[in-house]
């Protein structure tokens, strides 16, 4: 396994764990539960889908699965934004998680672009 891929496997798993801890820290309210459940679903699927992409059987399948990772990560960032904008969570509490999500998202998009440009 490539070192970059290994690091991304670890980073996506750590992202999922951080999402889990964030959701566990949410206050007990209907809004927090619904938003938290959405975040939990999308945030934990990032790493799972990345691992699945690494086992793709073709370039097309790899790109399609990375596209799912991109969507789930973007959705996770959306739910985090809603938590902040609804004043359920402070911006300071989630800044590092947003930054990490943005970095991973940029890497995934760059990977998709690179793979689509290759001619084999």
Automatic annotation (TrEMBL):
It comes from the Bacteria. InterPro entries: 23S_rRNA-intervening_sequence, 23S_rRNA_IVS_sf. It holds the Pfam family 23S_rRNA_IVP. This is Four helix bundle protein. It comes from Anatilimnocola aggregata. The lineage of its organism: Bacteria, Pseudomonadati, Planctomycetota, Planctomycetia, Pirellulales.
